[in-house]
Amino acid sequence: MTEKIILDVRTAEEYALERIHGSIDIPLSFIETREDRVAKLLKGKEVLIMCRTGRRAELAKQILAPHSEIEKLKVYKWGILEYKKEFPDQIENGTSNFNIPIMRQVQVVAWGLILIFALLGFLININFFFWALFVWTGLFYAGLSWNCMMATILWKLPFNK
User: Which comes out higher in pLDDT, residue 24 or 94?
Assistant: First the structure.
């Protein structure tokens, strides 16, 4: 009999907030960079891929589909948002009271700072444009390097513990 598993491809932060009992978490970013290792881990298993809404799960399936050692790949189309409506008794909740994923927090803070500095540049002093460019450069660097200093700072705030 083939082993069946639920593979959650959300970030570790999202997974820590709520998850399906017995599921395993391998974020999509890890699958994208180490698909061969993930395929070996899933060898011979029937895998139901899950994320928040189903989009990342579809991407994970596309990445893993060429690996024939995986018995069967299936996506739960509507993600954990719909799954918890259907099967609320299978959901485990984490410990954090704050449930906005860290990367979404980065997006809100960074683009808010860029907007504020740009407005200040127009209204008060042109030198504020430098700070908007500084924040944008940090986002650009984070996208290229997978190293986001703002996420590191936000992660240390009390509401993210």
Answer: 24
